[in-house]
Amino acid sequence: MPTMRRVLGSELAPGVALLVATVAAVVWANCAGDSYTRFWETEFGWPRLGLHMDGRHWVNDALMTVFFFVIGLELKHELTQGSLAHPRRALVSVAAALGGAMVPALIFVASTWGTDAVTGWGVPMATDPAFAVGVLALVAPRAPAGLRAMLLAIATVDDVLAVLVIAFGYAHGIAWVWLGAAVAGCVVVVIMRRAGVAGAGWYLPIGVLVWFATLHSGIHATIAGVALALLTPASPVAGRQVLTDLLRIASPVSAFIAVPVFAVANAGVPLSVSALHHAAHARVTWAVLAALLAGKFLGVGCTITVTVACRIGHLPDQVRPGHVIGLGCIAGLGFTVALFVTDLAYTNAAMIEQAKAGIFAASLLAATSAAAALAATDRRCQAMTTSPAASGPRK
């Protein structure tokens, strides 16, 4: 059991779980495509409650709320106790997240302007925290702790930005009564907090009702997860560290259940010669590729450079320019949320497959280029620390 806890607690484990799930989805879709499609398009639920959806929508609208709940908790933690709690360091990460969300979206729009594909402008905005942190731990185990903190902060902030885009950019007509009910549920949570209610069991039914109301409001239901997470108290309640406890409980559920199941449900892309040929000649594929690779690199890297050069903020200790280059590369891993937005942005099956092919290719190239940049930086740092000049004059 201690060994299992150690494995599941490692930074590599969530990325490995996501990778295994992705490979499983691709193999399933390509070796038994009909069963894959039939399974995830099977509808079930409770029609009288308006909860009759196919399997993929249950995963995307319900299970993924756990993922976005954890993203919200991580943002709250970073704002109150983590790297975003220090204004000058926070400014660099927040600016990088904004640049890393806006520049890819602009490149995507410029690449697809005048076509139906332009509606997918939200696809390249986010960075996948599980893959990104896992790749960083794998390819740069000696990277400074501040680099991981920056990566997690950037991924968390631009994931929250992506959630706002999902909630409002891809909303399908707002039902104000249901939205009001969701807001009322959040108000009840605040009242319970101020009354000193600490047990998570008391909040769970309210959280389910907030999710249910948000689902029927026309705004994507996953916004409920972020909203409820941001209402979590950062200071102790009745002697309990509620934020820390929830992160400890919910993070494994998100990393090892919600995200892998999401990957199995959404990453089943046909990889036949014909499908790859069509993807290679589709504008949306290249737009996604350019936005995630060039857009993230320029948005994150240039924003950090300008912010530090203007002395508006500063980098964490031991983080070098080479680390910033690697950070700009690794930010192109937009896997989970990019797949999520693709299914919201498009209804054309061929366009969905082509966009997902671009996401796959961009993720692979982003990981490879980040590995090269960070390995080169690590070698330079090692050479500097072991050189005679660095060790000082001999006596």
Automatic annotation (TrEMBL):
UniProt record, GO biological process: regulation of pH
Domain of life (superkingdom): Bacteria
Membrane topology, from the record: Multi-pass membrane protein
Record's keyword terms, sorted: Antiport, Cell membrane, Ion transport, Membrane, Sodium, Sodium transport, Transmembrane, Transmembrane helix, Transport
GO CC, one annotated term: plasma membrane
GO terms for MF: sodium:proton antiporter activity
Reaction(s) catalysed (UniProt annotation): Na(+)(in) + 2 H(+)(out) = Na(+)(out) + 2 H(+)(in)
Cellular compartment(s): Cell inner membrane; Cell membrane
Membrane-spanning residues: 55-73, 94-115, 121-140, 147-168, 174-192, 197-213, 219-239, 246-265, 285-312, 324-346, 358-377
InterPro entries, sorted: Na/H_antiporter_dom_sf, NhaA
NCBIfam families listed in its UniProt record: NhaA (TIGR00773)
Protein role: Na(+)/H(+) antiporter that extrudes sodium in exchange for external protons.
Family: Belongs to the NhaA Na(+)/H(+) (TC 2.A.33) antiporter family.
Name of this protein: Na(+)/H(+) antiporter NhaA
Organism annotation: Mycobacterium talmoniae
Lineage, uppermost ranks: Bacteria, Bacillati, Actinomycetota, Actinomycetes, Mycobacteriales
GN (gene name): nhaA
